[in-house]
Amino acid sequence: MLGPLQRSSLLLHRLQTDIDELLKVPLPSGVNVFTDGNNIKHLCIGIKPLPGGIRGVALHVEVRIPPNWPGEPPEMFGGTWTSFIVQAKPDLFFVQRHSDSRNLLRPRNYLPSNTLHDIVMD
Question: Which residue, 49, 44, 29, is CA-closest to 78?
Answer without folding.
Answer: 44
